[in-house]
Write a structure and sequence with these properties.
The longest helix has 15 residues. Strands 6-5-7-9-8 form a 5-stranded parallel sheet, sandwiched between helices. Strands 2-1-3-4 form a 4-stranded parallel sheet, sandwiched between helices. It has a 4-stranded parallel sheet with strand order 11-10-12-13, sandwiched between helices. The chain folds into 3 domains: about 120 residues, 3-Layer(aba) Sandwich (Rossmann fold); about 120 residues, NadA-like (Rossmann fold), CATH 3.40.50; about 90 residues, 3-Layer(aba) Sandwich (Rossmann fold), CATH 3.40.50.10800. Helix 1 runs parallel beside helix 15, helix 3 runs parallel beside helix 4 and helix 8 packs across helix 9. By secondary structure, the protein is α/β, with parallel strands linked by helices. It is globular and about 65 Å long. Bound molecules: iron/sulfur cluster. Its cofactor is [4Fe-4S] cluster. It is an enzyme of class 2 (transferase).
């Protein structure tokens, strides 16, 4: 017999920027002390000086989607998983300043030692995709699967772009974490252990990997909507499905459209369309190449001069690629997509503020994961790392 629990709503307390903060939430919008004005002409010099004073005590990580003004101070750049592992490989660094978004800083805290402190220069730098799967909602979903008699044969898989407590849920329930580079390998691991996968939180990465790389039919994928009773699915649909996709998406990559691919092909003869697997299935089907940010960077780097690209990923990265490869024509795929607004929250004033506070002995905006969550999230991460070839991959 099925139950009909009331769906848990995504808590969204909105505050006008600069006018209050939610004490129950980590997403404060205030910076204690003085946030330097963006117009301060000395910001670059201040960041340089603070970083020099901290020396080896600080290690600055910069995600590919960060602004240039911040990336210039990064000791290493990369995708979220590469950055977390880079941080773990620097045990001498007392402070890890993560220029990225909140779930990335959590992963760095999970993978680094207890003595290292992870700082996110602006705590309001969240990720809309990660926010689309809250623990209470995922636990409700697991109850729905149990009532349908399929939880025992389902392996939960979460994309790296999820909060630490979702990774911990997967660790507890025999599941695993994946990245956009290894999603196929992880799904193979999961299907060797169960008949079904619950894929969190990005429906597009889940669908694209299952259908295009694993040969699973589109009709074997169902979409679980946490805002509908029983996810909007019947018991029969849950029992028949192989992939139960969480209804989440990236608010940047999800906006690239099939029309943009058609238009760019009409406008630019010979153009190669390369997109991230967080894009919609229809867009991925039309693209010439699909891959993670690291894959996109390497594909452009390896292409012969004169290659024309239309790239479907975050704009900061595409602009940097275009600058780094003037011998090729690198363009942004879509006219109606902008920067990732949360990634862009990390700006030079926040970086200067965080570094200068560290110099003064104040650890600000530290991101910590509690011991139990860390233990179970590590289990899910370790299952991924134990897959053949994963420890050597960048
Ligand atoms: S680009 Fe998408 S997945 Fe990445 S941080 Fe922004 S909203 Fe999240």
């Amino acid at each position: 017999m099925t139950t009909t629990p009331t769906p848990t709503r995504t808590p969204l307390s909105l505050f006008v920027l600069g006018q209050g903060s939610d004490p129950r939430s980590e997403r404060g919008v205030e910076c204690p002390g003085d946030l330097p004005p963006a117009s301060d002409p000395a910001l670059v010099e201040r960041a340089r000086r603070a970083k020099a004073e901290l020396g080896d005590r600080v290690f600055v990580l910069g995600h590919h989607y960060q602004r240039d003004e911040v990336i210039q101070f990064a000791d290493v750049t990369g995708d979220s998983f590469k950055l977390a592992r880079e941080a773990a490989a620097r045990p001498e660094a007392e402070f890890i300043v993560f220029c990225g978004v909140h779930f990335m800083a959590e992963s760095a805290d999970i993978l680094t030692s207890a003595a290292q402190k992870v700082v996110l220069p602006d705590l309001a730098a969240g990720c809309s995709m990660a926010d689309m799967a809250r623990l209470a909602q995922v636990e409700d979903c697991w109850d729905v699967l149990a009532d349908a008699g399929v939880a025992d044969v389902t392996v939960p898989v979460t994309y790296m772009n999820s909060s630490a407590d979702i990774k911990a849920f997967c660790g507890r329930e025999g599941g695993v974490v994946c990245t956009s580079s290894n999603a196929k390998k992880v799904l193979e691991w999961a299907f060797a252990r169960g008949e079904k996968v619950l894929f969190l939180p990005d429906q597009h990465l889940g669908r694209n990997t299952a259908v295009l790389q694993m040969g699973i039919g589109l009709d074997e994928c169902v979409l679980y909507d946490p805002h509908q009773v029983n996810g909007g699915l019947t018991v029969e649909q849950l029992r028949a499905a192989k992939m139960i996709l969480w209804k989440g998406h990236c608010s940047v990559h999800g906006r690239f459209s099939p029309q943009a691919v058609t238009e760019v092909r009409e406008r630019v003869p010979g153009v190669k369309v390369i997109v991230h697997p967080e894009c919609q299935h229809e867009v991925v089907l039309m693209a010439d190449e699909v891959g993670s940010t690291e894959y996109i960077i390497k594909a452009v780097e390896a292409a012969p001069p004169g290659t024309r690209w239309a790239v479907g990923t975050e704009l900061n990265l595409v602009q940097r690629l275009a600058k780094a490869h003037p011998e090729q024509e690198v363009a942004f795929l879509e006219q109606h997509v902008c920067y990732c607004s949360t990634m862009n929250r990390i700006d030079l004033p926040h970086l200067v503020w965080a570094l200068e506070n560290l110099v003064a002995g104040h650890v600000v905006n530290q991101v910590t994961v509690d011991a139990d969550t860390e233990h179970h999230a590590k289990l899910a991460l370790q299952r991924m790392l134990d897959l053949p070839g994963e420890t050597t991959k960048d």
